[in-house]
Amino acid sequence: MKYKIIIPAYNAEKTLSRLFTKILKHDFMSNILVVNDGSSDRTKEICEENNVEVISNSTNLGKGEALKKGFQKAILDNCDFVITMDADLQHEPRFIPQFISKYNIYKHGIIIGKREKSLSKMPIDRIMSNTITDSIASVYSIEGINLKLVISILLSIMMVFILFNKRESQEYIIKIVNKLVPLMAIIYIILFIFVIVINFEQIPNMFKNIFYEALGFRQFTGGIFGVAIMQGVKRGLFSNEAGSGNSNYAAASVHNEDEVKQGFVQMFGVFIDTLVICSATAFIVLLAPKSDLTGMALFQYSVTHYIGQFGAPLVIMIMFFFCISTILAVVYYGNSAIYYIGTNKYLIPIYQILIILMVYIGGIKRDLFVWSLADFGLGMMTLINIFVLILVGKESIEKLRKFEKKDSEKL
Length: 411
Description:
By secondary structure, this protein is mainly alpha-helical. Helix content is 68%, strand content 5%. Helix 5 (132-139) packs across helix 6, helix 7 (167-198) crosses helix 14 and helix 12 (259-286) packs across helix 13.
């Protein structure tokens, strides 16, 4: 009976040696086949040092292609079956004999191992999710309880407490959030710098992949280029709100004697939000190993790749405070708009109830529905805002010219 244990590996130097040590205890070393998927670290050298068979891809093609290459090698070697394992210590070699035993008894075409759902035995750095509620529910799952639903309800109750509490309590909570959000932002920037430093040599290749995937012949002919631009525009609107008109409320609440100066501040905000923060997020994802995940799950996977088991809780904490502060900002924007529309005492409570309802729906629905809803709302606001900008554009340009003239006279 001939078989191979196929291990796809990408930049796995930190875990391969320990994995080989575990496999050696069970005397399966001669059956290992590592598919080095374009690693830039010592993955290949570690395999050779341990006398492990290794085949390599010249570039990183992803786990699927690595497994395919391993299967092809097993077929050429006339293997009876293969066993696949991950290189990051998630799969215990001590269970290999059970797979072999099951195959010998039943001769099944495929045998799948199922890891326990107990949090204590499930590696936290691989627990992924599409949304924040999904993320928390995945990491802290409770048997028989829909934790995603529970978290959505708790978030809604928290918003009820904030929105319908005494004004003094509201201001106290908002002050705490305002202090924590900058701290979360600093932690995020530190994480970004850390990722850039440890992956500095891979940055040129990352930019090469960006331009190749966006501007290649296949992208132009297949219409992918247009889709990429559309997606970028939608996310750009969502990131800084400059084009949709939301940021006007924040700008109007600032005590600045010169509206032109405040306009420059708002322009700088677009630079920070979109170019700096969004690029930081993109770099964190693009410098991590390829994955078939999307949305929040992909980002969480990328962060846990760099900092291990602390990645999932850190992402949850950062996203929680960012989202709470954003919800409070939206409430403020809406309240300001309603005050302008009318003074009916029921308008504000109805609006706040709708906010709470949307918090609940956003927590239990899939991310595609939530993003589609957000894109629709921002699109409608942007169309209105463009029309308004046309009306006030002349006045804005005149004020800018007066400011420039006044500034030049000072010089």
